[in-house]
Design brief:
With 204 residues, the protein is of the alpha+beta class. The protein has two helices and ten strands, in the order ααββββββββββ. The chain folds into two domains: 63 residues; 112 residues, Glycosyl hydrolase domain, family 43 (Tachylectin-2, Chain A, 5 Propeller), CATH 2.115.10. A hairpin with a 2-residue loop joins strand 1 and strand 2. The radius of gyration is 36 Å and the shape is elongated.
């Protein structure tokens, strides 16, 4: 793209003659003509750039990566301690639940929510609770679900009717439950046994 100084130099070669043997001087028509050509070239290039930017904005606007979740994803009850698990094309989030009006921990069950796109969520309700374990008394705190050989295991901390802090394990054929007590007793007990998580050792 030519600049103004380049246009002026070109105009010198197309103007009228000055004094005998003197330099040529450009006509006003020639200068206007080159300025018009230069301006049209500039506008054409600006138009191409603007068009490319607009196209990019449209593509980004239609791209699924711009979708955003409506946070918080749970707005109807007091949920706690989210624990994610991906199975197939779905993300499952398991949470604890504080009862309405509680002044301290009043947690009796666990809920499950799922999504395929991080925007639209399905509420599966209560999938496991203190009533799942006949030996449990209170404090349904932070648990974790893991899939193993086609079954889903929910490891949860509770206060047992006898023995205090305990870890229980429930099992289901579906990631959304219902879960049932897998062994009929605490998996382990101890003063500091709370909030379990799970790791499958590929070499184990």
């Amino acid at each position: 793209m030519r600049n103004v100084s380049g246009i002026a130099m070109m105009a010198l070669g197309d103007g009228v003659l000055g004094p005998k043997n003197g330099p040529k001087t450009p006509s006003l028509w020639t200068i206007y003509n080159y300025i018009f050509i230069w301006r049209r070239a500039v506008m054409k290039k600006v138009g191409r750039i603007a068009g490319a930017l607009m196209a990019a904005m449209i593509v980004v606007g239609l791209s699924p990566v711009t979708a955003k979740a409506d946070n918080p994803i749970v707005q109807t009850i007091y949920t706690t301690d989210p624990a994610p698990m991906v199975y197939g094309d779905t993300l499952y989030v398991y949470t604890g639940h504080d009862e309405d009006g509680a002044s301290y921990y009043d947690m009796r069950d666990w809920h499950c929510y799922s999504t395929k796109d991080m925007v639209n969520w399905q509420d599966h309700g209560v999938v496991c609770s203190l009533n799942t374990f006949s030996w449990a008394k209170s404090d349904a705190w932070a648990g974790q679900v893991i899939e193993r050989n086609g079954k889903f295991y929910y490891y949860v901390p509770v206060i047992a009717k006898q023995g205090g802090n305990s870890i229980g394990v429930a099992v289901s054929d579906s990631p959304t439950g219902p879960f049932k007590d897998a062994i009929g007793r605490p998996l382990c007990q101890g003063a500091s046994f709370i909030d379990p998580t799970v790791y499958v050792d590929p070499d184990g």
